[in-house]
Amino acid sequence: MTGLVIGLLYGAVGLLSGFCMMSSLRGWWADGDSRLVRTYALAMGIAMVATQLLAASGLVDLGKSIYLQPTFSVPLMFAGGLLFGYGMVLANGCGSRALVLLGRGNLRSFVVIVVLGIFAEMTLKGLIAPLRIALLQSSQTTTAATSLPAVLSSGGLHGAPARLLPAIVVGGALIVFAVAHRPFRRAPGQIAAGLVVGLLIAAGWFATGYLGADDFNPVPVASLTFVAPIADALQYVMLSTGLTVNFGIATVGGVFAGSLLTALATRRFKLEGFHSPRHMLRSSAGAALMGAGGVMAFGCSVGQGLTGLSTLALTSFVAVAGILAGTALGLRGALRVRPLKHDAEPALQGEPAR
Fold this sequence. Notes:
Elements: H1 2-17, H2 21-31, H3 35-56, E1 71-72, H4 74-91, H5 95-103, H6 107-124, H7 129-139, E2 141-142, H8 148-154, H9 159-179, H10 182-185, H11 188-211, H12 227-238, H13 247-265, H14 277-296, H15 303-310, H16 314-331
Antiparallel strand pairs: 1-2
Helix pairs in contact: 1-5, 1-11, 1-13, 2-3, 3-9, 3-11, 3-15, 4-14, 4-16, 5-6, 5-13, 6-12, 6-14, 8-9, 12-13, 15-16
């Protein structure tokens, strides 16, 4: 139930604010409008500080999450992030954005979600899984320090100070970056979106790590992420008998429902489809790269860019670097994706570009 509520709130905020890493980077690099980037930065900073406060107080054991496992592959995570970032540009948005747009009536997003889920499942357990496992085994490493707090602990700083110091420094820098921009301070909707999304990341950790803590029926400690949960949701829709609704599936359903209800309430619901076969092919290819890359990177622009970074995991910084590099490659690099006629998102309503 908590996952559903968190998803409902994220879907509503995502629709009203246009919250999306790819759109924010495109607006900043192409048009000089950095408000959405600063919204994302604010959400990152709030998520880091709030999550580390939960961990420092003993309410959530982040060490049980997938982001802080001692064995991992840096090359595979960076390559996965690279594929995800480039796919995000091809598909004109990430998995969470596709769920939000589907609730608004964008049928292109339905194709993106289905293809993303299929390729994520193929990479997790299907045809691509043996290649992923072989690459992982050939390049994995084991380390005792898996996060910035662990690095500080190995240097002699322990307990809550080891958690809160990097959270305040890194998270605080992100928050300052966001609010230092005057046009952003004049956009209350974007400020609210950053605050709410950041707190939703912490709420997800609290829901699974504290409210869901049960020695007899434990649930994975997790928060908002969308690649594997979209794959799980598709599997549940097809084979629900014998399966249970986990936090990720509930969140996926909640994001769609929250966006749909908000779109209907604000009269933004409008059916849209592909404008050409080329448009469909590009979006499908991008969704495939996001599905495969997101699994390799252990998350997406939200799963690693917000949730993973909130744990201050070293691998999350690697994955996010890959996502940013892939996005830059698609938006500005030698493999730049030329925008199709109807690719651009509508401008933020009621606010001039800066």
